Amino acid sequence: MKILVIGGGGQLGSRIVEQAEDRFDVYATYVTREPPLAPPKIYQVDKTDRKAIETLFQKLKPNVVIDTAALHSVDYCETHREEAWAVNVDGTRNVAEACKKRKAKMVFVSTDYVFDGAKGNYVEEEPANPINYYGLSKLEAERVIAQTCENHVIARPSVIYSWVPPAQRQLQSSSGKPLNFAMWLIQKLSNKELVKIVTDQYSSPTLADSLAKNLVRLSESDHTGTYHIAGRTRLSRYDLALKIAQKFGLDENLISPITTDQLKQMAKRPMDSSLNVENVERDLKTKMLTIDKALDLMGKQARLLKK
After folding, report:
1. Helix, strand, coil % (nearest 5) of the chain?
2. Separation CA 82–CA 278 (nearest Å)
3. What pLDDT digit, counting tens, does each position of 228-270 carry?
4. What is the pLDDT of residues 184-195, one digit of tens each?
5. What is the pTM of this model?
6. How far apart are CA 30 and CA 58, in angstroms?
7. Domain count for the chain
8. Alpha-carbon radius of gyration of the chain
9. Distance of alpha carbon 284 from its chain centroid, rounded?
10. Where are the beta strands (DSSP E) in 60-161?
């Protein structure tokens, strides 16, 4: 099976490449960060370039396309709406139309931020109601895919994180967002810096490696539709920060609790966007990771990749 990973150099895309390349014929696109593949398997292509996407699909003829590329910074999307729409909606449409034309299965990575956060523990069938522009753009991308490409999977994760080796920690996305919350926190606490973390925003933090594994499994399965693929543990950002500090032997006293209204974020955040993962657990006959198991795995990666 030939798999094309759109955004293969990012945090999630690189994990997908690593997990799939031993079993499948894997190719990847990138804009700034190169995927963990060697030429001629990587292509510097922006998904907003419709002609470039069409040319690439014509050349590779992929069976499955996993689209991870997006503008993820919530505040950046709020203040750069045209750019966010161009990437998250129009770029996704280019990929979906190419998948339809080539009869390829499309696997798209969306977000828990399509929900307003009024209740939490969301199941896939519940009505989406985004309260920020990032969530709005990702929901529109979901609609575009559903209307364009019949053979598709829409995956919704929540607060993706992973261990990042020291050499890669200064790399940022085009919107200026660090690679992930966990590594940002580890760097701050390692430098003995004080951090303020909100106690009233809840989610289902998702280890990138676990998400990548299940995206690959869905790619080769007959399952289609929308799945929540996230961690099994619902917890606040503050409690997540404490658990990360404990796991990596860092000073919890450097973490100060605050509430969302004190943070004055540019874009509104859903207060509880935690996700119910029972459907994907049933269909893939697996169990999503609890936060403790996920952080244990991240700790093992840290010991292996520190050198």
Report:
1. 45, 15, 40
2. 36
3. 999 999 999 999 999 999 999 999 999 999 999 998 899 999 9
4. 999 999 999 999
5. 0.95
6. 18
7. 1
8. 18
9. 19
10. 64-67, 105-109, 152-156, 160-161
In a domain, 192, yes or no: no
Note whether residue 266 is domain-resident.
no
- Angle, alpha carbons 80-89-41 (nearest 5°): 105
Q: Can you tell me the distance from the alpha carbon of 69 to that of 167, in angstroms, rounded to the nearest whole number?
A: 22
Contact between residue 244 and residue 185 where contact means Cβ atoms under 8 Å apart: yes
Q: Which residues span the domain enclosing 15?
A: 2-161+206-231+274-289
How far apart are the C-alpha atoms of 237 and 242, rounded to whole Å? 9
Query: Residue 65 corresponds to which tokens in the numbers above?
Result: 């396309």
- Residue 281 included in any domain: yes
Say which residue the tokens 């660090």 belong to: 178
Return the CATH number at 23. Answer: 3.40.50.720
Residues, the chain, total? Answer: 307
Amino acid, res. 235: L
The reply to whether 294 falls in a domain is: no
